[in-house]
Amino acid sequence: MRSPDDGLVGPAVAETLRALDLPPADEALAALATTLAASIDGMPPGVRSAMLPQVSGQLFRVLRELDARARRRNREAKPQAKCADTMSALDELRTRRVGQWD
After folding, report:
1. What is the residue-wise DSSP string for 2-49?
2. pLDDT for the residue 85
3. How far apart are CA 47 and CA 12, in angstroms?
4. Cα–Cα distance between 76 and 7 in angstroms, integer?
5. Which of 17, 25, 58 has the alpha carbon at shortest distance from 39?
6. According to the model, what pLDDT value does residue 1 have?
7. How many Å apart are CA 67 and CA 60, to the nearest integer?
8. Half-sphere exposure of 38 toward its Cβ, with a 13 Å CA cutoff?
9. What pLDDT, in 10s, does the model give residues 15-49?
10. At 96, is the pLDDT very low, low, confident or very high (cuts 50, 70, 90)?
11. How high does pLDDT run on average in the chain?
C-alpha cells in the first residue's frame, strides 16, 4: 500500500479500479481514468501545478461516475437494500484507507 505522501495518483486510481470490479461496459471509463492519472503523474512540476485543478477535476468526475455505476449495480443486485445502506466497493476501500493513516 502506498502512502499519501508519495505524490502519485496512478497507483491509487489502479487500486480504486480493482476495488470497483468493473464490468466490460465500464472499460472505456476505466481507461480514461488510468490515462488521466498517468498524465497527472507524468507532468513536470511547473505544468502539474498549473494543470492539476483542471485535470484532477476531470479525473474526479470519471471516478464519481464509475462509483455511481457500481452503486446502481449493487442496488439492482439487491433491490431490497436501501440506497444509504448499500456500500460500494469504493466506499469500503475509502473506509480501509482512512483507518490506515489515522
Report:
1. --GGG--SHHHHHHHHHHHT--GGGHHHHHHHHHHHHHHHHS-HHHHH
2. 55
3. 21
4. 37
5. 58
6. 47
7. 10
8. 7
9. 999 988 899 999 999 999 999 999 999 999 889 88
10. confident
11. 83
